[in-house]
Fold this protein.
Amino acid sequence: MSSSLSSAEPRGSRPKRFLSPASIMIYSALLVAAIYYLIPLYVMIMTSLKGMPEIRLGNIFSPPVEVTFQPWATAWNSACTGLYCEGIKVGFFNSMKILVPSVILSIIIASVNGYALSNWRFKGSELFFTALIFGAFIPYQVMLYPLVIITRQLGIFGTLTGVVVIHTIFGMPILTLLFRNYFVSLPPELFKAARVDGAGFWRIFLQIMLPMSLPIFVVAVILQVTGIWNDFLFGVIFAGTKNFPMTVQLNNIVNSTQGVKEYNVNMAATILTGAVPLLVYFFSGKYFVRGIAAGAVKG
Amino acid sequence: MTKLHSVSIKDLSLNFGSISVLKNLNIEVADGEFLVLLGPSGCGKSTLLNCIAGLLDISDGQIFIKGKNVTWEEPKDRGIGMVFQSYALYPQMTVEKNLSFGLRVAGLPAAEIQNRIAHAAEILQIGPLLQRKPAELSGGQRQRVAIGRALVRDVDVFLFDEPLSNLDAKLRSELRVEIKRLHHKLANTMIYVTHDQIEALTLADRIAVMKGGLIQQLDDPLTIYNKPRNLFVASFIGSPAMNFLKGEIAGTNGSRVFRVADLDISLAGYEAQQPLASGHTVIFGFRPEHIAISDQPGPAGRSCEAVVDLDEPMGADSLVWLKVAGKAISVRVDSGRRYQPGEKVFLTFNPAVASLFDAVTENRL
């Protein structure tokens, strides 16, 4: 009865070490990167919770001795953005008014575009697609002045409609690419089967393709929401002073030259402005990564 | 009286840009016939099926279904139902909704739709599956639903695009039998694309062997198997594959022989389609089962000695590899007796069931 189960003989599943040198390296690198990116956010939150006297002491890393939410209230309700002192809430609602129709409109048009370009190839459809994608590589600055003239001629310059149209147009290349690549990846037999069953362009799109494309719609919504919310350029040019989005209002608060700089209000306003994309990233991380991967050109 | 043709294809050509995919095809499919389009991948068989279905626009020619010119018709107006390799079931719909989709599009009354679904479900035995989604079905069940979707359309012509290729071997042979049974029951015209010769040989009334956008031979399965029209058909059909020896015609009129190296094989009994000229370079083809193996020399002029190279037991029979005139050939024998490498045996050829091909044109002589 010798104990033949000697520990030197390898047998069964291979033992796993809890922390190998390689994983220690990876985790420490990740930790450093995480701290590096979190420190500014930490400083902002701490500063926004302090009163001005405490800020003047200069200890930006120290937590507030006396926590106050007054700067947040000021930023939201009564901070001065240029001539008006109604806080950044005006910008928030303006941004919402720009965001919602732009996202819906651009996604509806781009999904139909992508569907047509992948399943209903017409003569010159590849050329059309190439031209559309090429549009994504032209710097915005080149197109700004012509677009100003065009929107002025159409009578929508400096209006909500104007900025929505501009966002819809500039969302087209990347969204169409996104949807086309997704629809190309669906089995072509489904489309053929639906045609044999007698379904037409819209019926195939609405009843066969749409129910299968929820993931790509989520990705498109994330891309558009973050992109349009963060936009500054189009908002400041095309929206008109009444409709300045939140980013523009934030700039006006932070860069106002009169009086003392209220750092705590500025920090609160900045966090409020960044909250929407931040929350979107937070709750949709998986889809967002998939969206970036899906944006890669294939097929 | 001419027989009514269910599908007829006249001078059909298809070009993608400068690439010619289908070249001037002419096929007449009789009413109730089971036609199999067989060929290696890229031969244009699926493309041809898509043209018949109306899913691809053709470059030239005409397509008639039930005597009606459907060349410019939409797929739904052609009276066809189609079954795809990947099943192509609508994933978000239940089996019942999948079956009824086309009927609902066509605006049929609900009672009629119910009747047709019940009928199809009974024939295909998918009644208990009607409320399930395709993801909850096995491969065989999915393909049955896909056939059902063609069935409820109550069409004249069924088109199958490699319907069994995604299934495992056992299921494939089961469903193959079911499709054949279905054809007997419905007596519809069926056009069936496959690259699997067993499917083709077992199912077809006629097989069209295709290569490079051309039909190489259109005949019943036995003719295709026994009298292949050219070297391609001969080598494509049959598993294990036909053996080929390259040599020349020799001997005098009336007693022609096939000569390779120092071996003469009498061609007495071979039905040549044209007179065989002495000195003509030819390829002599014979199937592994058309050759007899024995320990004794066979009849003179048709027999030769050979050395066993390898023995491959395959269950019911074995494949014995031997060297003849420096070339490896295979012979199918009963698996009762094992052959050892290096063993000396005698082979007897049967020219009546052999094939002769011109070495240059590769056509049957």
Chain B touches chain A at residues 50, 53-55, 74-76, 80-82, 84-92, 101-102, 105-106, 149, 153, 161 (CB under 8 Å). The longest helix of chain B spans residues 169-186. Chain B has eight helices and 20 strands.
